[in-house]
């Protein structure tokens, strides 16, 4: 019998992330204000789908739905982590990316071209078509790869802290957020949760904490935690990169949590077609919707197109940290509108309609992730010939129309 997790390590002994002052160079009219939704009052055990639940959570539901319909993004507060706990996680992210020898990172490389993000993506991995050097590095985990053997030597002691953080995202923040969205759509409070957590219970079943250090009994989800650093872009590459750290796109899955940091750059596309900066919301997370959530709600909610602009001049020389928690639907969930009158009566439509008419098979969540992952960083080939000069099928054209609908 393997020993269970050692106790939490003391993250306050790590070198803290040196928080940069906020920029003073972005004019006020270039920001967009997001709706701030407080989820602290949501008690999962007492949730029902009756009028009393709707009334007692009316403010959170209204704000969330208003924000998500408008831009695909909201800010969430009251999610049960203190600013200090968040800072400690940023310190851990810095440690994982900056203190591990490059040689050791190579032994823990993520098999990205095989479809797994678990492990390191080092700088220079992507050969960009514009020739610019890739200055981003990250270390990623799925719940089932939160194992001692997958951590670098000097970080093994932090396994319990990482597991606890993943658990908090999955079992605390995610079901509360999904309950608010479900109720806002007119569905049962746990309708979306059941599509994100195999088994559908709000109980913290199969917890990561206390699991053996090299074996996690986790089949519930493919949630995905990323500790990332955007290093400054080389001066000679700025123009090649069109002054962007990351071009415009939508996330592929259901929801993404972005932990707060002060380096500006994240922009979202408004309904008026303008790119606007997202402010720094201290101690709060920015939550964005991905493609899969748009599809499954029949377009009642939209994925939020976003990009990362290079930081403004007063922050451009500073490393930009990030902690992202990506959440997909369960792999086998079909991405057609939920079969419920609340969706159809409000005009929810299947975005794959035309794709199916041309012979496409029902698109499952994991198939969409694989399909769209292949297109990351690639521009659509205009016209009706593919990269090999062959005529694109009507089915492929229909799928491209969906993939590139916001680009
Ligand atoms: Fe994104």
UniProtKB/TrEMBL annotation:
Gene3D superfamilies: B-lactam Antibiotic, Isopenicillin N Synthase, Chain. Residues 42-150 form the Non-haem dioxygenase N-terminal domain. InterPro entries: DIOX_N, IPNS-like_FE2OG_OXY, IPNS-like_sf, Iron_ascorbate_oxido_reductase. The lineage of its organism: Eukaryota, Fungi, Dikarya, Basidiomycota, Agaricomycotina. It comes from the Eukaryota. It comes from Panaeolus cyanescens. Pfam families: 2OG-FeII_Oxy, DIOX_N. This is Fe2OG dioxygenase domain-containing protein. Residues 226-315 form the Isopenicillin N synthase-like Fe(2+) 2OG dioxygenase domain.
């Amino acid at each position: 019998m393997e020993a269970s997790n050692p106790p939490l390590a003391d993250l306050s002994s790590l070198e803290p992330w040196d928080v940069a002052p906020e920029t003073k160079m972005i004019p006020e009219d270039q920001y967009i204000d997001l709706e701030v939704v407080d989820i602290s009052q949501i008690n999962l055990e007492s949730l029902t789908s009756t009028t009393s639940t709707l009334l007692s959570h009316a403010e959170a539901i209204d704000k969330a739905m208003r924000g998500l319909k408008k831009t695909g993004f909201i800010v969430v507060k009251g999610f049960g982590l203190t600013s200090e706990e968040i800072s400690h996680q940023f310190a851990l992210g810095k440690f994982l990316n900056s203190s591990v020898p490059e040689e050791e990172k190579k032994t823990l490389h993520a098999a990205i071209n095989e479809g797994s993000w678990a492990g390191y993506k080092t700088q220079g991995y992507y050969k960009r078509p514009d020739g610019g050097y890739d200055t981003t590095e990250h270390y990623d985990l799925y719940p089932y790869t939160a194992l001692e053997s997958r951590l670098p030597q000097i970080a093994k002691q932090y396994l319990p802290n990482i597991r606890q953080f993943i658990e908090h995202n999955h079992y605390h923040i995610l079901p509360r957020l999904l309950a608010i969205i479900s109720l806002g759509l007119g569905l049962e409070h746990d309708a979306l949760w059941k599509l994100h957590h195999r088994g559908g219970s709000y109980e913290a079943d199969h917890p990561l904490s206390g699991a053996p250090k090299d074996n996690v009994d986790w089949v519930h989800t493919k949630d995905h935690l990323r500790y990332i650093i955007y290093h400054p872009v080389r001066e000679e590459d700025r123009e090649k990169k069109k002054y962007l750290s990351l071009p415009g796109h939508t996330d592929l899955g259901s929801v993404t949590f972005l932990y707060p940091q002060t380096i500006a750059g994240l922009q979202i596309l408004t309904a008026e077609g303008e790119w606007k900066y997202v402010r720094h919301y201290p101690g709060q997370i920015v939550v964005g919707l991905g493609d899969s959530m748009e599809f499954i709600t029949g377009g009642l909610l939209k994925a939020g197109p976003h990009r990362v602009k290079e930081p403004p001049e007063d922050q451009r020389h500073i490393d930009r940290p990030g902690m992202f928690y990506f959440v997909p639907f369960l792999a086998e969930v079909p991405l057609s509108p939920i079969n419920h009158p609340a969706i159809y009566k409000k005009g929810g439509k299947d975005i794959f309609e035309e794709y199916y008419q041309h012979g496409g098979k029902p698109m499952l969540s994991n198939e969409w992730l694989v399909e769209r992952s292949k297109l990351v960083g690639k521009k659509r080939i205009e016209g009706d010939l593919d990269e090999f000069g062959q005529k694109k099928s009507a089915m492929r054209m229909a799928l491209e129309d969906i993939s590139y609908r916001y680009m």
